[in-house]
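hey so u asked for the seq, here:
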Amino acid sequence: MIRNYQNPKAEEAFEKRIAFPEKIPFFFTYGSKEYSGFDASVLTFLEKTEEEAGGKKTVTLSYALFDGVMVRAILSNYRTHGASEMTVWFENHTGHESLILENVCVSMDFTGENMRVTGALGDYQNLYKPYDLPLDENGVHFSSDSGRATHVYFPYFNVKWTGGGALLAIGWAGTWHADFIKTEDGLRYSAGSINNLKTVLKPGERIRTALFVCIPYEDKRTQYGTNLWRSWFVTWNLPKADKDGNPLLPFSTCCLASDTGYPNSDGSISERYDTWKPSLDKMMAEDVKVDFRWFDAGWYIAPDMKSPVPYSKDRDWWHTVGTWVLDENKWPGDTFLQSVEYGHKNGIKTLMWFEPERITDPENMVKNFAYNKNWAIDIGTGAVTNNIGDEECLRYTIERISKVLRDNKIDMYREDNNSDPAALWKHLDQIEGENRRGITECKFILNHYRMWDAFIETTLSIGGCGFVDSCASGGGRNDLESMRRGIPLLRSDHDRTSTALRLSMTSSFNKWIPFSGANTKEKLEQLALTGVSDKYVWRASYLCALNVDSQFVQDPDQDFGVLRFGLTEWKKVNPYLLKEFYTLTDWHSGEDKTGMTAYMYFDPEEEKGVLFAFRQEECDEGELSLFLPLEGKWTLADEDTGEKISDMNGKIVLQMPEKRTARLLWVEKAN
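ran it, structure tokens below
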């Protein structure tokens, strides 16, 4: 069965908007005058361009305001999925300062009965907790104000009503807001980025809105909206794997930092020239080779030319960033390059950690690394910002990091961001002067996207990846615009702890971002070196990025049989992980270990899938009844026992007599 996600009504609505641009649901205020849509009676039409390829049509409409400032709307329609999107630019190509621009938003009306807003909250304290909120007179409101777009709240929404719904997303790596207001016959959705924007544009400046996405649908089957979104995400948003444009497929990683015999506080701070080879050799000898070696924080020399050390109050990996020069004490000569090339010869790529938006010890950065102290912005929050919003600072940062990537033949750039930037943006806005609110955020976000594009261009040029790893203290930067360039190798820092939390996150996060990863050990705390790694944990960890947590030479009790089992079984499972996804049990929090969790990945073209069922640690029930959301008759085959289970009118009954049990069952059409 091939899913047809086309929506002729949505395509017709898109074409109507192009034909009548004054009806495009975009609003802004310029010089105290309110504008609705792109009305040629109040805007001067300049140009219309069209481009169409592979089922995607893009139309660009350019207008001029009365004083010559340009407004450029880029609108796309994806015929394959009934999706539409819009981004709007404001550009000052005149020789004078613009008037004040503010109140920039999209606003769409939806008609239907029994309106409700559903989705998931963000990372950090909310840990992707789902919500399902009926729309009442108070409406539903979200505002992300920290500057890390997917901490706390999540800019992905599924608005549902009787017989249909609409999938909505805001693609912006900074601040954003979304409001859902009850109307007489449905709801009004109003959304914007750069919260509280109120700025003039100086000559030569330009800013843009977020990427706004809308995918209307009719509710044809169970969890239709979820799989419409996943299909569109994978088809049109997931970055390509390499310079040849190959699709990005699941892969495995492993960090060697815990396998050195040296103290390690985080990342790769303990790795050095004489530790990596025994680990890789043992990995290959035991047939547990991963796809990527994960080279994390702590590999660089500190600004004062001394080495970062673990468990130090002010000299660990966190307090010594900014040089992006390999620590010669740990990596003399070209020893790191040798380690990368050794991996390449044996089919193992390398990913490398950076944190370009933070700087430490600016005085010594100036003294030893030709840094401009004016780029280091300290507002007393505990983190000094490297001002990539400044063009010279951006060039300096790109050049230094790109050199490390090129010189060491790094395959994947991994980025972290361990501070909330919104307070800094506000501070720099105030320095800019009156009526410049929001200008700094826009410069930062646009330059950040440019920076990622530059690093992807670098890795592609040396045969590496066409994407980056997106991390911001875990899941802080997983907005849609960022996900077109990156993937979250860890959807949350907290996902390195309990299996219950891992299952909880899979049940909510996977509905929105299909490609992500978790750790493969169950631990009491995030950075613990020891933890449980058995069949139960492995099966809960099967995601597109399998982040293997293992010691190869330092742990005499390492069970290579379990490690080999996990990698082998994951390879059997991973062809399904980017396909349809169905949750089969109610969501539970990461602290709740008393129930059952089940979900299924299903390939509609092959008419095959894989179902996971977990009886959690404190669950007193030994039987799980499920209803398959599939048409027809199906048979499940247990991976461990070969037992065949037939559905009875869609109902499947699984026996799970032992607590902390994970069953993996292959789903096929019944004969």
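The first helix runs from residue 8 to 19. DSSP finds twelve helices and 37 strands in the chain.
lmk if thats what u needed
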